[in-house]
């Protein structure tokens, strides 16, 4: 069941407590297409959500090791006590629940006030909801979207006034290869990732005039503590047990899907990407991510081509506003 190798990348276990709301999404693969940071890399200030373990922790460790300053947010601040003891005032640890909009604004404001300037804001908190659409509850749906979608949007919105005031910066959003493809038993998780893809596509165009650049990080699966302990599980219905939904559930529970990625390498790849100008709109990481997303987009484009005649046949001869397919404003926007 190779479909389970997709994108699954929670970096710490979800304990079933609905109050346990911040999770870092892990993953990665060797970043071979762009140079890694040089030994004399510019020192930067970073704000990162979801830093308790896994990828968020790896990213924080690497940035501190190279001499950067980091504001790291998480729910249980004592998880970073060892790093705080080692790196002192270059690490600023702040408690944050990403479903609390007021708290996000306070923490982001405090982060900029503490460091004076923040070069890169990384929204990394999130988790996966496992279950068919019919199996999940309304409360689970709301929590999934409040954490993965609204939490990420709130972080970006809170940072934007500061980034504009300082003359620019970078926003990085942890998405997933699951923002381009979809698999059974993860419909709400995919909903959250596809939503962030659309949000950042538009946001990138909105903030470009202010020298603010964005990157969607789209990793495949990685060697982390994923599986049944890394997901919120909906109550299973017997009707789905013999379907692909049941297959997905069993493979995740058994940790039976391939995990080629390495969270540490992904952290290095993300750091390296900040040296690129312009920023990559998307950062696809992992051999599985490349293979599966490439195949999905190739198939999708072929399906679009097969529908070309039908698509064009539905245009008005002359639209009421005088536009034609050759002069609609968005035809050349990309």
TrEMBL record:
InterPro entries: NAD(P)-bd_dom_sf, SDR_fam, SDR_oxidoreductase. Signal peptide: none annotated. CDD domains: 17beta-HSD-like_SDR_c (cd05374). Keywords: Oxidoreductase. It comes from the Bacteria. GO terms for molecular function: oxidoreductase activity. NCBIfam families: PRK06482.1, PRK08263.1. PANTHER family: SHORT CHAIN DEHYDROGENASE, SHORT-CHAIN DEHYDROGENASE_REDUCTASE FAMILY PROTEIN. Belongs to the short-chain dehydrogenases/reductases (SDR) family. This is NAD(P)-dependent dehydrogenase (Short-subunit alcohol dehydrogenase family). It comes from Pigmentiphaga litoralis.
């Amino acid at each position: 069941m190779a479909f389970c190798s997709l994108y699954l990348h929670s970096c710490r276990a979800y304990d079933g407590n609905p109050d346990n709301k911040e999770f870092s999404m892990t993953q990665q693969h060797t970043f071979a297409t762009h140079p890694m940071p040089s030994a004399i890399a510019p020192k930067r200030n970073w704000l990162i959500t979801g830093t308790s373990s896994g990828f968020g922790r790896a990213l924080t460790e690497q940035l501190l090791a190279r001499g950067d300053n980091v504001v790291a947010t998480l729910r249980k601040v004592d998880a970073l006590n060892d790093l705080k003891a080692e790196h002192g005032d270059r690490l600023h640890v702040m408690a944050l629940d990403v479903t609390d909009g007021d708290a996000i604004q306070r923490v982001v404001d405090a982060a900029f006030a503490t460091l004076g300037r923040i070069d890169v804001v990384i929204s990394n908190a999130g988790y996966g909801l496992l279950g068919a659409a019919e199996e999940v509850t309304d409360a689970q749906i709301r929590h999934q979207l409040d954490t993965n979608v609204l939490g990420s949007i709130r972080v970006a919105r809170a940072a934007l006034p500061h980034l504009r005031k300082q003359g620019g910066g970078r926003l990085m959003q942890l998405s997933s290869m699951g923002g381009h493809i979809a698999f059974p038993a993860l419909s709400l998780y995919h909903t959250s990732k596809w939503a962030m893809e659309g949000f950042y596509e538009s946001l990138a165009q909105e903030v470009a005039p202010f020298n603010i650049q964005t990157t969607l990080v789209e990793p495949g699966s990685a060697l982390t503590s994923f599986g049944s302990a890394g997901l919120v599980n909906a109550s299973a219905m017997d009707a789905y047990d013999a379907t692909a939904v049941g297959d997905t559930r069993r493979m995740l529970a058994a940790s039976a899907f391939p995990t080629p990625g390495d969270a540490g390498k992904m952290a290095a790849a993300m750091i390296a990407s900040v040296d690129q100008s312009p920023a990559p709109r998307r950062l696809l990481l992992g051999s599985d991510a490349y293979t599966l997303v490439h195949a999905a987009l190739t198939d999708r484009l072929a399906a679009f081509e097969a529908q070309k005649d039908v698509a064009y046949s539905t245009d008005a001869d002359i639209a009421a506003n005088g536009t034609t397919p050759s002069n609609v404003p968005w035809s050349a926007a990309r």
